[in-house]
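re the bet — no i am not wrong, look at it urself. input seq straight from the record:
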Amino acid sequence: MNYSETIIFVMEITGTVAFASSGAMLAVRKEMDLFGVCVLGVTASVGGGLMRDLILGITPPNMFRKPVYTLVAVGVSVLLFLLLYVRRSFRESRAATAYDRVMALFDAAGLGIFTVSGIHTARSLGFDQTFLLVFLGVITGVGGGLLRDVIAQEKPYILTKHVYACASIAGALVCVWVYPALGSPAAMAAGALAVFLVRLLAMRYRWNLPRIR
């Protein structure tokens, strides 16, 4: 594994931890048991990549070919469950507020990392069409969270909260546009940072797309 591949692997593991945490914490909030916590953690972390691989015709999908990501997601989910189980303080208002903040940060980090990871996977297979790369980046970024919310019977986060999918689109465009000049690792870092910043700004200033109430 060369230097570039190491950086990308570390980013993907970081994204896996972030999304697994968000999935596991939502499962705890829904009062699911340990198995349910693991299912939501794994779904949130590798679900988007699974959808991407099926679109690209990668069979079996990478979650089975490289089970390290799934195993990390299970480990993170079990750890969070045990920590919250021991403390038994999740129902307290202060803990609930902390949950919302932590989940938002986890989602922002995971969204950025998986968005650019999806673009990198498509590029590694020889695809370079902008629309396809952006689409695959976004589906990788939001797909896991979408499946997580559907399983947990929540209104999908990407359809209601703070320009969520739009942040992924913005970061994907940054990654694709700067790739020729910066190369893969730097372009991925720039795209992930763009997603993270847009999400933080949207949460801070309550940016939302227009809707009919």
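see?? The two ends are 52 Å apart (CA to CA). told u. also The chain has eight helices and no strands. so pay up
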